[in-house]
Design brief:
Elements: E1 3-5, E2 11-13, H1 28-31, H2 54-63, H3 65-81, H4 97-114, H5 124-154, H6 161-165, E3 169-173, H7 179-191, E4 195-199, E5 202-207, H8 214-231, E6 238-246, E7 250-252, E8 260-271, H9 282-288, E9 292-305, E10 315-325, E11 330-332, E12 335-356, E13 362-369, E14 376-380, E15 383-391, E16 394-396, E17 402-404, E18 413-419, E19 427-432, E20 435-437, E21 445-465, H10 468-486, E22 491-498, E23 501-508, H11 512-523, E24 532-533, H12 534-540
Antiparallel strand pairs: 1-2, 3-23, 3-24, 4-5, 5-22, 6-21, 7-8, 8-9, 9-10, 11-12, 12-13, 12-21, 14-15, 15-18, 16-17, 18-19, 19-20, 22-23
Helix pairs in contact: 2-5, 3-5, 5-8, 8-10
Protein name: Cytochrome c biogenesis protein ResB
Transmembrane segments: 67-85, 124-146, 216-234, 468-488
Domain ResB-like: 65-520
Length: 541
């Protein structure tokens, strides 16, 4: 790296505008300006100095504030598009996702699915945008904070005349800086909590330098926050799944890799009684009809013993019984199961009787498990029933043929083939709720509806989050940076003797009005005139 040697002897990196030590103006363009740009102390930023190699070009691209802002805007737009329709993890498991979005939201839902917005926050391009924003924050911070830190660390007390007179607050006084006047000024500065440095009779007063690092602390907090967000897509770090569980059913808890199982012993649904409960709920009951008092799942938690053997039921050890209610989750091994939804009286089994239409003689009962139906039922004496087709959520498709919208038995329908001694070749019957059709001609036998068994279904959210503390830490650091940069100002005051006169200058990174008032107090009763605002003077002219 080439270096530029100042007349004071300090070696500055190539591209430096103001000498890091004495503040002498090194750039030709800066000499023509009335005021110097003090945002980064005139230090050399890598992005403004090198542009030759591919690394330089990548660095320069991501160091741009405009690029960072555009990445944030694109992320915000993408995130908002992801909220138009629910994400796939939150839709009911009634049908394939592609079919659900088109069925519920039409062509717009189909487009939403085709573009990948149904799994937006785990898509590769969304994660790539987050990574790009993180890279932009890191590079933009390093590009600015390193040269700024170096310049502030190397600054001398006696600054060059070209540096002082190009400060916004500048003044010259013909009065002599006597020991009494200097002591008075230093006393006032100390009262204002300035740290003083002296060199050859010159004075540098500085305070609140730490506030300059506020924006970079913000960046650090955002980077940690983004890391926490991206870690959610690392297996085992974050789980947010829905577990639908019917009464009497036992399932593996999602995310535990078959280690823990849960059984729904009973689902309890209670509402407030207008006549028995407190009067405060009566108006709500009158308006809404019903107000839920409690819904809970009485569950049993099991742990698997041994390894998983394909095709065999796992050996389970009971851990405990627990009632899962809203805001009262079941917790195990970092997982928390919350009560979030339910479905009452979902059809579970349907019963039919094989009957002779003419004599109404019955030949046996057929009970069909709507979630795991058997295909053949032998009723004895030559009477049999075969389930040729089963449609859990029946509808006619575009071609007028029977089809199912989902695997959930919301509207079950069957095509039965009925065998009897008189009809050994069998008869075909289509049976649905309130429908009994004979598509191949009139039959001698029919399947008569005999009853239905229902069960309540509970929905539990399974959550595990090892990233929450990282996200919280990032948010805390970000807020520290906001406070650090918002409530304090970095202020400096220079006094230098030049050819029998006293030159004074001052700078702050913000709140110039507050600095002006402070300068009046510092130089009061000292005989030295306080520096004046050159920008204000130009406006008056």
């Amino acid at each position: 790296m080439n270096e530029v040697k100042c007349e004071c002897g300090h070696l500055n990196p190539q591209g430096t505008i103001l000498c890091e030590s004495c503040g002498r103006v090194l750039g030709e363009k800066e000499r023509e300006k009335q005021l110097v740009d003090m945002r980064y102390e005139g230090s050399a930023r890598r992005s403004q100095t090198y542009n030759k190699t591919i690394i330089d070009k990548i660095w320069n691209f991501f160091s741009s504030v405009k690029v960072g802002v555009w990445l944030i805007v694109i992320l915000l737009i993408a995130s908002s598009l992801g909220t138009i329709f629910p994400q796939e993890m939150y839709i009911p498991p009634v049908m394939p996702a592609w079919e659900y979005y088109e069925d519920q939201y039409g062509w717009l839902g189909k487009l939403y699915y085709d573009l990948g917005f149904h799994n937006l926050y785990s898509s590769w391009w969304y994660l790539l945008l987050i990574a790009a924003l993180g890279i932009s924050l890191v590079i933009a911070s390093l590009d600015r904070v390193v040269p700024l830190y170096r310049s502030l660390k190397n600054q001398r007390v006696s600054r060059h005349e070209s540096f002082l007179k190009r400060q916004r607050m500048f003044g010259m006084s013909d009065a002599e800086l006597s020991e009494e006047a200097a002591a008075k000024i230093k006393e006032n500065l100390t009262k204002k909590r300035y740290k003083l440095r002296e060199e050859n009779g010159d004075i540098l007063a500085e305070k609140n330098r730490f506030s300059r690092w506020g924006p970079y602390v913000n960046h650090l907090g955002l980077i940690i926050f983004l890391i926490g967000g991206m870690l959610r897509f690392v297996p085992g770090m974050y789980v947010d799944e829905i577990l639908w569980l019917r009464e009497g059913e036992t399932k593996a808890i999602p995310g535990t890799e078959g280690q823990y199982y849960l059984k729904n012993n009973q689902f309890i649904f209670e509402v407030y009684d207008k006549d028995k409960d407190q009067e405060v709920f009566q108006d709500a009951i009158d308006k809404a009809g019903t107000v839920v008092k409690n819904y809970q799942t009485n569950a049993t938690l099991y742990q698997r013993q041994g390894e998983i053997v394909p095709g065999e039921k796992p050996e389970l050890e009971k851990l405990r019984d627990q009632a899962i209610q809203v805001n009262k989750p079941l917790k195990v091994d970092g997982f928390a199961l919350y009560q979030v939804d339910y479905k009452l009286d979902e059809m579970n089994k349907m019963s039919f009787i094989l009957e002779n239409k003419e004599t109404q003689e019955q030949f046996g009962n057929v009970e069909v498990d709507l979630y795991d139906p058997e295909m053949h039922y032998d009723l004895g004496n030559g009477y049999k029933v075969e389930v040729m087709s089963y449609f859990p959520d029946f509808e006619f498709n575009e071609d007028g043929e029977p089809a199912t919208k989902s695997r959930i038995p919301n509207n079950p329908a069957f095509i039965f083939k009925m065998f009897s001694p008189e009809k050994p070749e069998g008869e075909i019957s289509f049976v649905a709720i309130r429908q009994n059709l004979e598509p191949l001609g009139e039959n001698d036998y029919k399947m008569t509806f005999a009853g239905i068994e229902t069960k309540n279904v509970t929905a539990l959210t399974v959550r595990k989050d090892h990233t929450l503390w990282i996200i919280g830490l990032g948010g805390l650091i970000f807020m520290i940076g906001v406070i650090q940069g918002s409530y304090w100002n970095h202020r400096r005051i220079w006094l230098r003797r030049v050819n029998g006169r006293v030159w004074t200058a001052a700078h702050t990174n913000k709140n110039w009005h507050g600095l002006k008032r402070e300068l009046e107090d510092v130089f009061s009763d000292s005989g030295i005139e306080a520096p004046e605002d050159q920008v204000a003077e130009d406006k008056k002219e």
